Amino acid sequence: xxxxxxxxxxxxxxxxxxxxxxxxxxxxxxxxxxxxxxxxxxxxxxxxxxxxxxxxxxxxxxxxxxxxxxxxxxxxxxxxxxxxxxxxxxxxxxxxxxxxxxxxxxxxxxxx
Length: 112
Description:
mainly alpha; 2 domains; 112 residues; single chain
């Protein structure tokens, strides 16, 4: 029994010593690791801000270009639509019109 108690105390002493050693080491490295983690989080935050800013700039650019193209208002769109319809349904010779009626996906120039 005495021998088992000595073994137990020796094992406990080694375990406590190892635990104290590891605790001391972790306290030495904790500030360094904490600083490193804070730097990584700051880098990630900066990356997120830059990405958000780039996306915002792209949306603003697209919005500006759409507003510039809509300066003519609804009348401009109606005129463009009418011109498009006139180009599609313009009168053509009978020979050309027949192949359009038979195959609407084929080009109007007669090329195969």
